[in-house]
UniProtKB/TrEMBL annotation:
<keyword id="KW-0862">Zinc</keyword>
<feature type="domain" description="Aminopeptidase N-like N-terminal">
    <location>
        <begin position="110"/>
        <end position="193"/>
    </location>
</feature>
<dbReference type="Pfam" id="PF17900">
    <property type="entry name" value="Peptidase_M1_N"/>
</dbReference>
<dbReference type="GO" id="GO:0006508">
    <property type="term" value="P:proteolysis"/>
</dbReference>
<dbReference type="InterPro" id="IPR038438">
    <property type="entry name" value="PepN_Ig-like_sf"/>
</dbReference>
<dbReference type="InterPro" id="IPR001930">
    <property type="entry name" value="Peptidase_M1"/>
</dbReference>
<comment type="similarity">
    <text>Belongs to the peptidase M1 family.</text>
</comment>
<keyword id="KW-0031">Aminopeptidase</keyword>
<dbReference type="InterPro" id="IPR014782">
    <property type="entry name" value="Peptidase_M1_dom"/>
</dbReference>
<protein>
    <recommendedName>
        <fullName>Aminopeptidase N</fullName>
        <ecNumber>3.4.11.2</ecNumber>
    </recommendedName>
</protein>
<feature type="domain" description="Peptidase M1 alanyl aminopeptidase C-terminal">
    <location>
        <begin position="560"/>
        <end position="881"/>
    </location>
</feature>
<keyword id="KW-0378">Hydrolase</keyword>
<dbReference type="InterPro" id="IPR027268">
    <property type="entry name" value="Peptidase_M4/M1_CTD_sf"/>
</dbReference>
<keyword id="KW-0479">Metal-binding</keyword>
<dbReference type="GO" id="GO:0016285">
    <property type="term" value="F:alanyl aminopeptidase activity"/>
</dbReference>
<dbReference type="Pfam" id="PF11940">
    <property type="entry name" value="DUF3458"/>
</dbReference>
<feature type="domain" description="Peptidase M1 membrane alanine aminopeptidase">
    <location>
        <begin position="233"/>
        <end position="446"/>
    </location>
</feature>
């Protein structure tokens, strides 16, 4: 495995393929010991190739070549070269030819879950980014699009269901107890969208009529005992199909849409043409086993993969550096979908919260890269929050700058120009610009430079005029690079003394231009001034409403101003954000006091403002729960130059207890009036549960006795997983009888449901209570811990390392050692999962010098592992290469 210095692939080295493969005809013979794959490739020289190539080099890994023929004639060993990662057919080759290979592969031994593998007794595939080369020899790159036929032959009893992309065109029983099914996909596609399934499965099915009147069969395939948990996924699929027709005018194009759920899957799901393969976490849902958030997750991911059918499959990426072309755009589409299905404000807050915790941290760490990266060693390492979530923010900025209609015009032109093609981010930007006669030249910079821009806002007031000065600059992590000034929308409102929005008119505009509410200012310079006129009184400015650009906003705010915005901002996002900022300021003051050995007190104005939110009956319960929740320990850590691990933990716990005491009656009422209602899945009920469970957490923090007994009662009587899991999360904070009861009873009831058991591990791994590290160490040795299963590994180790700052960063370094041990072990089975886990070390430079030494020791230990994969090698290599100034030595 270990390659001392793997050479990075670079974006600027792109060259068109030497050959095109118009047709791929595959025959799979699936069996227990091994699988045989016969591939017939219809090849021709690529007229676009820069230099007409003599030879043809096909990608292939872990394949045993059994036969090879060119135009029907066997090739001798001198006619080709075989290495561990390719098969090269020597030239000269005809203009057009047919190449047939037959290989043997071992899906049973594939623990990396890339290529063809088994999840329990089901055969399934994962080909993105470069898994197809583990199935057969092929030009495994997205700009080679081919028409596929797939014949699958397998034992009829063990594998009665055999699926692939497109339409089923033939099936027959064979004499030896096997059967054969043939699939044909009429749409040319790149290798990464290929899929195959073989197993003993059942389908939950329905029919969908497209707006042009075509019937599409929808099928959710699962293990037989899971058939009752598919309804929500099926409904979500139909919702997504309808939504894409209504909002983007996009209709589904095949007669069948299948989704398979498996328990072993490296990520969330995969958009293979006509046959999505999903992590069961994003398919299976029943009220006893799935929380409200799980339900939303299913709908969002089903939507996401469905939306890829146009943004990804019909129009795909020319090369992997363009990944955000499909991922940023599809995340933006799924965000809009969820916003329409649920609450736009709640969705926006959730997404920005996630972006700030994960993507902002990525932007200032050793893996920082632009949304269109310039180099990679292992492509799978670049399926990042930057490419996905910052990429979605960049798409959102087109939407904000051009308006919903302008954005739609751009999308229409994009499909008109590029349907059936493999294209680039520049092609997308050109379509947006051309459809709107807009100048998006400068906008390219969002694709070019890594790092989170810093936006400074300064307001001055005189004679009825409010002058807002906006300045943009680069983050310190840019090092020597000079900052590329961006074109960005900055949405702004001005609040009058009564808390209402004032009409906004910029100097020089005529009276009729005044709008009440929000205005989008376009920032293109490093500094720009905007002068608002005709203002009756001194306003309070609300900047970056709806988080209109992915930047860090700096604006001086008094406590009174924050309290005022927290109570009044008409923009739900900024109202929430003002509360978070106020909370962060007061919590950091407490952290400072704790570190100085002084008494830490919560700002009384914050306590009152927080209480006013809790008492605001007009506020939707989901928004209220978000507003009451204090900033995550990681967010507080990000605001410090050296993360004060323990002081942050104590300050936050103390603040929760103080708020719980100060507003006890209000919280008790919020809990009691909302918990224990008969379950339903409406928005209102979800909001009630969120509010009740947020209140419960504060009650437990302030009065463990009363809170604990409420939690216990809720735990024992809940008829749904949302309330039961929330109660368990409170019980695990109360060592002794309460915790023992919760942990044992939950395990007893759910030990045989893997997704629920994952929750059991995750809840314990997130706990704030003092003995968490001991318990996590014990859970790693629990009989139900299985590091081969990605969901289980993530539930325990991912949760602990990425979401439990206080205990993962325990001063004695045992948390670090645990993670390093597991990364080394998992890397030998599944490099992709190991690479995700090891990323928890990326922030290591942000801790004190004692912790840094311990962290470095573990990183070096991993780097020295004799079986290091290039996935993990790239991440730890970059983590160790970052110099103290924050400059990054790019690999190679
Ligand atoms: N496109 C897949 C991700 C593939 C990850 C490969 N390591 C899922 C998605 O974004 O829809
Ligand atoms: Zn995607």
């Amino acid at each position: 495995m270990k390659d001392p210095q793997p050479t990075p692939v670079r974006r600027l080295d792109y060259a068109p393929p030497s050959h095109l493969v118009d047709t791929v005809d595959l025959v799979f013979e699936l069996a227990e010991a091994h699988t045989l794959v016969t591939a017939r490739l219809g090849c021709r020289r690529n007229p676009e190739a820069r230099e007409p190539a003599e030879a043809l080099r096909l990608d292939g890994e872990l394949l045993e070549l059994l036969e090879i023929e060119l135009d029907g004639k066997p090739l001798g060993p001198n006619a080709y070269t075989l290495t561990k990662d390719y098969l090269e057919i020597s030239g000269p080759l005809p203009e057009q030819f047919e190449l047939q290979t037959r290989v043997r592969i071992k899906p049973q031994e594939n623990t990396a879950f890339s290529g063809l593998y088994r999840s329990s007794s089901t055969f399934c595939t994962q080909c993105e980014a470069q898994g197809f080369r583990r199935i057969t020899y092929m030009l495994d790159r997205p700009d080679v699009m081919s028409r596929y036929t797939t014949q699958i032959i397998a034992d009829a009893t063990r594998y009665p269901v055999l699926l692939s992309n497109g339409n089923r065109v033939a099936s027959e029983a064979l004499e030896d107890g096997r059967h054969s099914v043939r699939w044909e996909d009429p749409f040319p596609k790149p290798t990464y969208l290929f899929a195959l399934v073989g197993g003993d499965l059942r389908a939950h099915a329905a029919s969908f009529t497209t707006r042009s009147g075509r019937e599409v069969r929808l099928e959710i395939w699962v293990e037989p005992h899971e058939i009752d948990k598919c309804d929500h996924a099926l409904q979500s699929l139909a919702n997504a199909m309808r939504w894409d027709e209504e909002v983007f005018g996009l209709e589904y194009d095949l007669d069948i849409y299948m989704i398979l759920a498996v328990h072993d899957f490296n990520m969330g799901a995969m958009e293979n043409k006509g046959l999505n393969i999903f992590n069961s976490k994003y398919v299976l849902a029943a009220l006893e086993t799935a929380t409200d958030d799980d339900y939303e997750g299913v709908e969002a991911v089903v939507g996401h993969e469905y939306f890829h059918n146009w943004t990804g499959n019909r129009v795909t990426c020319r090369d992997w550096f363009q990944l955000t072309l499909k991922e940023g755009l599809t995340v933006f589409r799924d965000q809009q979908f969820t916003a329409d299905m649920t609450s736009a404000a709640v969705k926006r807050i959730d997404d920005v919260r996630g972006l700030r915790i994960v993507q902002f941290a990525e932007d200032r760490g050793p893996m920082a890269h632009p949304i269109r990266p310039d180099a990679y060693v292992e492509m799978n390492n670049f399926y990042t929050s930057t490419v996905y979530n910052k990429g979605a923010e960049v798409i959102r900025m087109y939407h904000t700058l051009l308006g919903a209609e302008g954005f739609r015009r751009g999308m229409d032109l994009y499909f008109e120009r590029h349907d059936g093609q493999a294209v680039t981010c520049d092609d997308f930007r050109a379509a947006m610009a051309d459809a709107n006669q807009a100048d998006l030249e400068q906008f390219e910079r969002w694709y070019v430079q890594a790092g989170t821009p810093q936006l400074h806002a300064l307001g001055t007031w005189a004679d009825g005029r409010y002058t807002l000065t906006l300045t943009q600059s680069g983050p310190p992590s840019l090092g020597e690079q000079s900052y590329l000034v961006r074109h960005m929308p900055v949405s702004v409102g001005l609040l009058g003394p009564d808390g209402n929005d004032l009409p906004l008119r910029l100097e020089g505009e005529d009276q009729a231009a005044a709008v009440s509410g929000t205005r989008v200012l376009e920032l293109r310079e490093s500094e720009q001034q905007f002068v608002f006129v005709d203002l009756p009184a001194k306003p309070v400015v609300s900047v970056l409403r709806g988080f209109s650009a992915p930047v860090e906003l700096h604006i001086e705010r008094s406590r009174e101003e924050l309290a005022f915005l927290m109570a009044n901002d008409s923009d739900a996002f900024n109202r929430w954000d003002a509360g978070q900022r106020f909370a962060t300021d007061t919590l950091l003051a407490m952290v400072g006091a704790i570190e100085a050995g002084a008494a830490a007190v919560l700002d009384p104005l914050f306590v009152d403002s927080w209480g006013a939110i809790a008492a605001d009956d007009a506020l939707d319960g989901s928004l209220k729960a978000l507003a009451l929740d204090l900033p995550d320990e990681r967010v507080l850590g990000q605001a410090m130059s050296v993360v004060a691990v323990d002081a942050i933990h104590h300050a936050r716990a103390q603040a929760m207890a103080s708020l719980g005491r100060a507003h006890h009656d209000l919280l008790l009422a919020a809990h009691q009036s909302n918990v224990g209602q008969a379950y339903d899945a409406s928005r209102e009920s979800i909001a009630r549960r969120r509010l009740a469970n947020t209140a419960l957490a504060f009650l437990c923090a302030s009065d463990p006795k009363q809170g604990g007994s409420l939690a216990r009662q809720q735990f024992d009587s809940a008829d749904n997983m949302t309330d039961r899991q929330a109660a368990l999360a409170c019980l695990v904070e109360l060592p002794g009888e309460a915790r023992d009861h919760g942990v044992l009873a939950f395990h007893e009831q759910w030990r045989s449901d893997p997704l629920v058991l994952d929750k059991w591990f995750a809840v314990q791994a997130r706990a704030g209570v003092a003995d968490t590290l001991e318990r996590v160490l014990a859970l790693r040795d629990h009989a139900d811990f299985d590091r081969r299963n990605p969901n289980r590994a993530r539930a325990l180790l991912g949760t602990f390392a990425q979401r439990n700052q206080a205990h993962f960063h325990a001063a004695d370094g045992r948390g670090y050692r645990l993670l390093a041990d597991e990364v080394i072990a998992i890397d030998q089975l599944n490099p992709q999962v190991a690479a995700r886990l090891v990323s928890a070390f990326n922030s290591w430079r942000r801790f004190d010098s004692e912790r840094q030494a311990l962290l470095r020791e573990q990183l070096e230990r991993i780097a020295a592992s004799p079986t290091l994969s290039k996935d993990v090698g790239e991440i730890v290599g970059r983590a160790l290469a970052v110099s103290h100034s924050g400059d990054i030595d790019l690999p190679g």
